[in-house]
């Protein structure tokens, strides 16, 4: 792949990722989450914080793709490169948001997946749009990049004095969070989110993504919810999302779905619960939808 083509590909794919972050922030109404009309269960951020955060990450999204496109070493070598760049991106994000963590999880996943997209494109001489098989190759490459990640990152937790909430959840409940999802090659995206988007690609986009969010909330091991409310609260959120999916589908009236989600939002605000893990997966779903030319 020629240098000029690599730079153009990095730019286009990085823009898909930025668009995904902005579309996720703009989707309304999202239970417990920040959107243009609600701060969800967050007192320290609003819709504009997410715009600021997304723009801070924008150049790094392009660079993640570029790292993959020019990479010649092993998958684990690429992981080390993107992790180092991802830490720089996180600092830029926190500087822009005055220390508020808006996109830490999304940045981690986009770093892995965008670099894997670049690597697979370069290796297989691919062009956009991707096929389902191309996307599967990306997930498989991420599995190779993150092999042993959980055991390495969580090796000596018992000796650590200060634990992150992800580390606490792993020790107390065996919750593996986004690291576990990455090490398995993002099965939620592969088996739930993307098949749903492919099946309903011609549907009205807003309804499609609101329903996808409910599917993610009903199935995802969301460490954000567990950290705030515990295992019981997380199971309740999953059940409520699942119950709403029994009532609403692609053909439902938009106003009825919107009203139900606003009520769900008000409840999660009261309970101080935010399904941030599902929101990150929603943004990643949008990204792969754009990459595959679904909409």
TrEMBL record:
GO molecular function, one term: ATP binding
Pfam families reported in the protein's UniProt record: CitG
PANTHER family attached to this UniProt entry: 2-(5''-TRIPHOSPHORIBOSYL)-3'-DEPHOSPHOCOENZYME-A SYNTHASE, TRIPHOSPHORIBOSYL-DEPHOSPHO-COA SYNTHASE
Gene Ontology biological process terms in this record: prosthetic group biosynthetic process
Segments forming a coiled coil: none
First-level EC class: transferase
Catalyses which reaction(s): 3'-dephospho-CoA + ATP = 2'-(5''-triphospho-alpha-D-ribosyl)-3'-dephospho-CoA + adenine
Protein name: Probable 2-(5''-triphosphoribosyl)-3'-dephosphocoenzyme-A synthase
NCBIfam families in UniProt: citrate_citG
Gene: citG
Enzyme Commission number(s): 2.4.2.52
Keywords of this entry: ATP-binding, Nucleotide-binding, Transferase
Family as reported in the entry's similarity comment: Belongs to the CitG/MdcB family.
Organism in which the protein naturally occurs: Enterococcus ureasiticus
Top-level lineage group: Bacteria
Annotated TM spans: none
